[in-house]
Amino acid sequence: MTNKQDNKDKTRVYEYAKSLNMSSKEIITILKRLNIPVNNHMSVMENDAVDKVEKFFRDIKANAAAKRAATDGGNVSSTTTNQKPASQAPAQENKNAAAPASKPAAPEQTTSGQSAQASNQTSAQGQSQSQSQSPRRSDDQYVASRPQPGRDQRSGGQGHRPSSQGSSGGQGGYQGQRSGGQGSGGGQGGQGQRQGYQGQRPSGQGGSGQGGQGQRSGDRPPYRSNDQRPNQSGGGGYNSRPGGQGGQGQGGNRSGNNSGPRPGGSSGGQMASSPSANSGRPQGGANRSSAGNNRPNRPFDNRNQSGRPVIQEAKPQFHVGASAAELDEAAARAGVKTQKKTKPTPNRFDDNKGKRGPGGQRGNARGRYQQETVKKEKIDNTPKKIIVRGTMTVGETAKLLHKDASEVIKKLLFLGTMATINQELDLDAIQLISSEFGVEVEVKIKVEEDNFETIEEVDDEADLLERPPVVTIMGHVDHGKTTLLDAIRSTNVTEGEAGGITQHIGAYQVEVNQKKITFLDTPGHEAFTTMRARGAQVTDITIIVVAADDGIMPQTVEAINHAKAANVPIIVAVNKIDKEGANPDQIKQAMTAYELVPEEWGGDTIFCEISAKQRIGLENLLEMILLVAEVQEYKANPNKRARGTVIEAELDKGRGPVARILIQHGTLKVGDSFVAGVNFGRVRAMVNDKGKRLKEAGPSTPVEITGLTEVPQAGDPFLAYEDERKARDIAERRATALRQSEMTANSRVTLDDLFKHIKDGEIKDLNVIIKGDVQGSVEALKSSLEKIEVEGVRVKTLHIGVGAITESDIILASASNAIIIGFNVRPEPAAKTTADQEKVDIRLHNIIYNVIEEIEQAMKGMLDPVFKEVALGSAEVRNVFKITGAGTIAGCMITNGKIVRNAQARLVRGGIVVYEGKIDSLKRFKDDAKEVAQGYECGISLERYHDIKEGDVIEAFIMETVER
Ligand SMILES: Nc1nc2c(ncn2[C@@H]2O[C@H](COP(=O)(O)OP(=O)(O)OP(=O)(O)O)[C@@H](O)[C@H]2O)c(=O)[nH]1
């Protein structure tokens, strides 16, 4: 552990990065490369480390200069560019004049040397293999695994720069370089740029093929949500798309065969023979197979929106097999036509539905490649463009392309796959085959618009822009959540808005260092859990507030578990440090039990010591939020219709229904029609948290809108539509569907149908929440349950706690589809009601063995309950009479249902079951009664139990046989 005082005087990674205008990740990567131990962005950099990094920059610079000199000397093919530097250096230069071209590193030159040799097809193959397989510098991987639009563009921009042209567009990357030696010998501006683009993509590939993703997660501070971010898989997928790969192999090949004169330079040469060059049309066998190797990483396996099975072999198939000559010949036979593809005009209401992910999309949409028309041998009635609405068989595809099925099969064969006429092709395969015939594909998947919240939007990486993080504050009662929210808001109001009045709209935005942060202004669990229970995930980051003078309390633990279940990064705000007796270190120590280890102790959780009341440490807290946001790279596409979630809604006397909405994607404009939950409307007016009227609002902006027909519910999904009639129809259909689904059985997991779910492959984890009377039994139950071994399913404990089952437990269970196990405890009345509403399965037990057996049997599908408990009623003990000979008689009031003589009974004290047995006697005044109903008084004695106390509750129930 580093001495804290020392650390104060030293530079941390993120500070150093900031001083260089670089990202922490970049510095971490360099440090790792230099074998300097580094944990994360909070690690302290010794002077020695700073010196080494600076030397690294100097070396790089010197290297680059030497390379440039060599290039100028005419050795174009061997020294120009290596792709990586090309893509990275400009970024560096732009970002930081102090460390120009810092990324190009020596190891790359080796590669580039190889690529220089790779001027024929075969060596190009070898090259691409070696790129993807040889161990690479970590920063290369880092770049490779992050196909950020910004970087792409920078590298594209690099292509334009005279210097990069001078190096024959070789700046464009590995491929570009290889081709650079040849195809771009006459390297022109456009060429250079284009190669820059192409080169960029292969550079990504190398990384992805070799675990670019792994590197990425290694590079980042390990926030859990990393793994879930679509960008990430997009990264890998993007990298491994055949587009880039095609580019790779083609570089060497193409330029060797077709130099300069082609439109589009080296790529143009390629394209003449391969209409699908941008989608990875393989030129060399090995190259193709290397693409094949990469393909399994692609994310679009999941994108078969029709849900129909995709032929898996269709993926590697395109990278194995035919030679370029064969394919050219095939193209000629097929009468391939040149076709420039143009990007369709973006429509805000399109949702990118037709988009297929970054690689493919770009390939299609950007019209980068032109081909020469090949001489036709027969009348060509190939369509220019086809519209695809889902997966199709080979036969259907052929028909749409106006080809014989045999031609399509032949193409597939060339690409290495034996297919039959009835074999199904996924969308990517259809696109590839179509591009083989020079046909543009427009994907129009019919959107199930009624269930718009279930449709995952796929945006082109290039369309995504940074958005503010959305932060929720949680913690135990009185630990200072409200004070913190108020402090942050008022700080901002006074600084940012002269005399601005903050309006309560359920969320607000503050601006720190020119960056915005959106806070959900609903302290406690509502914002978080209620919404999540309704399927809306609005929070990006959770701040857990813990009072330094109080410590970790039950709700703190609950908050941690909620945040973990939702997979969002956690920042711990240790509050009230101004108070006497505050002991932040003790909090940190205690937090380690929940896997929240402070960074200074070698963990990855940010702890901020604050005083919400005295406004101490707030700026640091805000900066830390921005830091997490920077690492997590929260992005959204603002240029499409708005999609979001209702945070709050109410009926305003003057304005009618009012909804506060958090826009999550796209831009909402005044006048837009929309559906919110099962209601529709048209935005009449829109104000932000400062009460300012807005005409439009982009991602992560909270707004209050009027113009609704009815009041939606918090957590309702929100989507803008082109026209009001459509919105109305959809809202009406949603309302009908909701009514129907409420009437039919719901799909929540219950123990009884657990086996069915397992059999259907629906669940792998059985989520449980365990509440018990004492910590010891809860822990014991947890570990016993987690040890149950049933193939294909395991018990995952989301939350454990001591005490009665609360509403919050139910909400967590509902949000996470969990079962609640109560061990010697009962649900609170409100919790019971909520559980009934949410259809959460609560299992109450008092023998550990029974719980384990029940769960195990359920997991094995052997659950065969013969009896089911049927509650009859409950009574409150108001008086206790000790009668010699008769034992203890409880004078009770029946509070609900009825109490029946000889029924089973349970005595509950403060939510804890203290007795379970039978009712011994039941009397009305002095007479024995068979049953006593609600609202009446009675005397109850329990079989062999006399320790009844005032305030106890007696529950009566019977066990009924259940038919299964
Ligand atoms: N000394 C001190 N008191 C604080 C600080 N932050 C909050 N408090 C006090 O702690 C009490 C509880 O603060 P709240 O902000 O209401 O706490 P909360 O977590 O929102 O509580 P609930 O809304 O009941 O869940 C108030 O009296 C605050 O004034 C702090 O940093 N220092």
TrEMBL record:
It is found in: Cytoplasm. It comes from the Bacteria. Keywords: Cytoplasm, GTP-binding, Initiation factor, Nucleotide-binding, Protein biosynthesis. Its main location: cytoplasm. Signal peptide: none annotated. InterPro entries: EF-G-like_DII (IPR053905), IF2_II (IPR044145), IF2_N (IPR006847), P-loop_NTPase (IPR027417), Small_GTP-bd (IPR005225), T_Tr_GTP-bd_dom (IPR000795), TF_IF2_bacterial-like (IPR000178), TIF_IF2 (IPR015760). GTP binds at residues 475-482, 521-525, 575-578. GO terms for molecular function: translation initiation factor activity. Pfam families: EF-G_D2, GTP_EFTU, IF-2, IF2_N. Residues 97-134, 194-203, 293-304 have a biased composition (Low complexity). Belongs to the TRAFAC class translation factor GTPase superfamily. Classic translation factor GTPase family. IF-2 subfamily. One of the essential components for the initiation of protein synthesis. Protects formylmethionyl-tRNA from spontaneous hydrolysis and promotes its binding to the 30S ribosomal subunits. Also involved in the hydrolysis of GTP during the formation of the 70S ribosomal complex. This is Translation initiation factor IF-2. It comes from Paenibacillus aestuarii.
